[in-house]
Write a structure and sequence with these properties.
2% of the residues lie in helices and 37% in strands. It is an all-beta fold. A hairpin with a 2-residue loop joins strand 20 and strand 21. The chain is globular, with a radius of gyration of 22 Å.
């Protein structure tokens, strides 16, 4: 994370004796990034956090990936997925590469304890509300929230009634999801003019006390292991540092506007190894008198582009079947743009009302085992049909 937080009790000095009222020594745990050379947090447990009593392999049902061959744009309707399972084990893998995995889940049950020891996770809450619990405490999240969970953070999701729909980006190649460097000073402060800052970020607010043995599912570089711990990982009396889960509402992202169309990097929100994540939010449209207000046709020369449509009116996609919960994939090597007629329709419109999350990757995306369950097979031909061209697809 990018700035210091403290919750509960911590000793005055790191690595020094810290005891409870009964005189028992608390157990210090350091969670840090990039070895010992980047951001860190220090947690203080009532009992040792390392005692495991059982370990067994758990089936990794991510399934095989396949190339996007023949190269086609794709449209997925995630609302075709019926609610079922929990926010961790119920995820459906849709696409990915060696840098990241993109999945979706419509959960109707609480999750088990889970720790991703491979890379950070960014979870966008499309619908519903929940509490994210971790050794760092409780954090309530709801629709429109980005939730960033650092690597190796043990956590679980508790639903606050109803279903919880999540769009999940995992840094599967290792590495961390962070605010873009261009928003930050060399000392980690958000610069004035960045589209969000420390005031918009929420962290855990209250420690979660737990005791007794606990099962934890751990994703590691070779698969998934289910550990049984002698002591619960949430038995923390306090922590401090720069590394913890946090939430940012997409509604707190301040968009830029211009006289003419601004390119997608204007809306970058997070960056990870081999990918970036952007937020499209309601804003005033371009105000030059001759502006064409919908995006121009473009080819992603160096990246695959994924868009998750999560709110509002998607004017440039009208007529394609794209709507709430849709995911589009426009791969490198494919020229794409607004639907025929969208540019003309935009001329008198003064603002856009859409919300969307974009993921741009710099390696080609393969297709996941659950993509076929939600795919619209006619999407690739929608531009031709919109222009009145007869196609056989």
């Amino acid at each position: 994370m990018v700035y210091y937080r403290r919750l509960g009790e911590v000793p005055r000095k790191r690595h020094s004796q810290f005891r409870g009222a009964d005189g028992a020594l608390y157990h210090e745990e350091m969670q840090g990034e990039e070895g010992f050379s980047w951001t860190q947090s220090f947690l203080y447990h009532r009992r040792i956090p390392t005692a495991i009593t059982a370990a067994e392999s758990h089936a990794d049902d991510g399934g095989p990936m396949r190339p996007n061959d023949p190269l086609l744009p794709r449209h997925l309707r995630t609302h075709a997925f019926e609610p079922g399972g929990d926010p961790i084990l119920g995820r459906r893998v849709l696409m990915g590469n060696s840098d990241l995995t993109i999945s979706y889940v419509a959960a109707d049950a609480d999750s088990p304890l889970y720790r991703n020891a491979v890379g950070d996770e960014l979870v966008y809450v499309e619908a519903g509300s929940a509490v994210l619990e971790s050794p760092y405490g409780r954090m309530e999240v709801g629709d429109g929230d980005y939730v960033v969970i650092p690597t190796s953070t043990t956590h679980r999701w508790r639903l606050l009634g109803g279903e919880l729909r999540l769009f999940v980006v995992t840094a599967s190649g290792g590495g961390h999801i962070r605010p873009p460097k261009r928003f930050m000073s060399p000392f980690g402060q958000f610069l004035d003019g960045s589209p969000y800052n420390e005031r918009d970020i929420r962290g855990p607010e209250e420690l979660t006390s737990a005791d007794g043995p606990a099962e934890v599912y751990v994703r590691h570089r070779r698969g998934v292991t289910r550990y049984t711990y002698a002591y619960h990982p949430f038995d923390v009396v306090g922590w401090d540092g720069y590394n913890y889960p946090y939430a940012l509402s997409i509604r707190d992202f301040t968009p830029s506007t211009g006289a003419l169309h601004l390119p997608p990097p204007t809306y970058i929100t997070f960056e990870g190894p081999g990918f970036v994540i952007c937020s499209f939010v309601p804003r005033m449209y371009d105000y030059h008198p001759d502006a064409v207000k919908v995006p121009y046709n473009h080819a992603n020369v160096d990246s695959d582009e994924v868009l998750f449509y999560c709110g509002g009116d998607f004017m440039s996609r009208a007529g394609t079947g794209v709507g709430m919960g849709s995911i589009s994939l426009h791969p490198a090597g494919y020229i794409h743009g607004p639907q025929p007629g969208s540019a003309e329709k935009s001329m008198t419109v003064t603002r856009t009302e859409e919300y969307a999350v974009m993921v741009d990757t710099f390696k080609p995306l393969d297709l996941g085992p659950h993509l076929d369950e939600a795919e619209d097979p006619g999407y690739a031909w929608s531009w031709a049909r919109g222009a009145g061209v007869d196609v056989g697809g």
